Amino acid sequence: MEGKVESLWEEVRELTLGTTVDRLQSPPTPLQFLRDFVSQNKPCIISNAISHWPALSLWSTPSYLSTALSSSLVSLHLTPDGQADALVPHPSQSSLCFVSAHVQPTLFPQALDLIRRPPNHLVAYLQQQNDCFRTEYSELESDCDAHIPWASEALGCLPEAVNLWIGNHLSQTSFHKDHYENLYAVVSGEKHFLLLPPTDVHRMYIKEYPAARYSYSQENGEFRLEFEEPERYVPWSSVDPCPARASLKQESLKFPLYFNGPKPFEVTVKAGEVLYLPSMWFHHVRQSRGDGGCTIAVNYWYDMQFDIKYAYFNFLQSLPCRSIDDQTIPEGDCEDDSGPHASSNHLNSRFSGDESATNNVEIHKDRDNVQVHERTFVLDSSMFV
């Protein structure tokens, strides 16, 4: 099997993906979208798909948002450095842990002010995700479409969740994947994505890390880590694709499959553009602020099909993969994330009630874990984190 997986990375680019992400100047027809992108699990950027949204002009004015949401209590995510759902040094061990943000109910005008004028000791981000646009921000629903019509027709369903993201240039998201077909519409500012297809799973050096959460004290302005009880482990990518220049060589030696393999796809999604991010694609995200001092986006999560491609990717995950350079398996490489610490709920659920049953098959999904149960048959998989 040696070398076969590495060959796959090149072949999938030569046969299907090419070297750049396709850009469409107008929305595709449902048939074109399904045939050329969804069925091929291939991303694209679409222009002129949301040009009719009032949000494009209204949301760049902070006063409009603050007035519309003047009495709305929203879930504000706080971190010391803009990195949540990320790996940080363990406070008592020479290792890493997985940390989530401190979540604090806050009146929207106060939350927006923290984002637009960040203090030195914390980074604020509105990113609740649990269908938050239709719950916490329902006053803004008329400024956008309830769904993406051509995508809904192609996928045969309406979005399972619609989320609003409001942040600044200090926030970034580490490599992860989602079990959803994602239509990501940027309203203000720019989003900068690094993308890798599911076939590159071995290059992510997925490993299990103890789960913790930031706890923030308003009295002294300090963060501390609180580990979950009972103890829980989260499978997460160990790779930082943007290390400091001083540590680049060390990171390259530590993760050769990533740094010596094919380059990730780099795309910038500007205000008014929509990114189709296929299910199970790994993505790392940074952002640049717009005129109103924020980066704002709305994304639509559609259910993915757990079809033969999903079975293929599960099989691929099970294959051993040696380092390109020294033919050894570095620590954390090809880690089986269904090990002794695997959990049926690795991360917070994307939104409440995310369970569905079809033909006696029950599927439980969250951000990085999918379990399929049918009578005595059990498949426990969290392969693409």
Automatic annotation (TrEMBL):
Region named Disordered: 330-365
Classification via SUPFAM superfamilies: Clavaminate synthase-like (SSF51197)
Bias (Polar residues): 341-361
Domain of life, source organism: Eukaryota
Residue ranges annotated for the JmjC domain, each copy included: 124-317
Similarity annotation: Belongs to the JARID1 histone demethylase family.
Descriptive protein name: JmjC domain-containing protein
Source organism of the structure: Gossypium schwendimanii (Cotton)
